[in-house]
Amino acid sequence: MKSKKRWSRRRKVLVSVGIGVGAVALLGAGAFIAAQTWIHAGFSPLDPDSAEEGEWYSVQPDGAIDALGNPYHANIRVGSENKVMVVFGGGGVSVDDYTEARPVRSLFDDGFYTVLDGFDQLAKDGLAEDIDGNPFRDWTVIQLPYSTGDFHAGAGANEIEGLDGEPEVVHHNGRTNLELVLNADAVKEVLGSPSELLVAGGSAGGFGAAINTGVIMEHLPDTTNVTTMVDSSLLLYDWHSVSEDVWLSPQDVTDALHTDNFTLDALTALTSEHPEVKILFASSIRDESLARMQSYLNGGPFDVTAEDGIAYEQDLTVMVEKLQAQVPGIGLYIFEGETDDTTGLTQHTIGPNTMDELVGGTTPLEWVSRAVDGQVESFGVDLLE
Fold first, then answer.
1. What gap in Å lies between CA 201 and CA 123, rounded to an integer?
2. Which domains does the chain have, with CATH numbers?
3. For the whole prediction, is pTM greater than 0.90?
4. If you average pLDDT over every residue of the chain, what do you get?
């Protein structure tokens, strides 16, 4: 079943800007400037003494940096309920010297991982969107933008040769940034001791949610109702070596990664260490973006074909079987979503479709919120049969 095309205003602006230089002609100079203003609009620094419920703020701890060494910040919404959601942003990955040297630095760049500044307004979308019918609209939210190319799992710097032939340092500070944000006094004061915790992420952010839930739980030791939702995070590669040699990840990350399936390994380790955590995994059946990246990781071009989509579906089928065997009680949400009629490739992440019935007459929001309440369900697995 194809999903309805329900795009938020913020996503429409992003798509328009993403057209590139032609956006000026299509939108007009005024509209393009307005879009740029929206892209770079940030939030005021968090001050717990004056923070208002329902409002968004920024947190920029000392030492938090992006891949280029620039200051890094997280975004936080102060909720009226004693419940917390941690959302990891996505945007590609770096796995070797070649990808290290090719980040996405501007809207007009091609590359493997984003180091773009701005887009803080996107924190308001997805599970955190302030709309009627969203059971999470009054939760406190920490949103961690993605700009380190390391699935939010790195803790070091890697020196490479840049495209200009000069030495260049890439900072993989994903895990370090998370720890610095969670340790910030203002953040700890706002979080308190919540009754419920939801850790979520899509694409690269989904890998981050899978590998970092245990770390977040260490910072909230009294919170026993914990749910993790991983959306569209399946790539097969030697992640142990990447985490050890490229990202310089902490030992707990490298120890967890022992097969070619990052998410499967991370979720298996999570359920082993914390069997009480409710775990969810979502994916469209022939994810166009993941199929493209998998083509590159397999030694092919950074491009995608219908055959790559079929290969992704085969990998997803195997992964679902292993998840069901290794992560007891996991909830699955397998869907088609928007599908290319020519290639059969399907959309990447649930994206703006949180309130659309993508599969089984159930919306992603319903699927996640029921799991948080203890009703973990699976939908769409039969699409893989």
1. 12
2. 1-39 (no CATH), 44-384 (3.40.50)
3. yes
4. 91
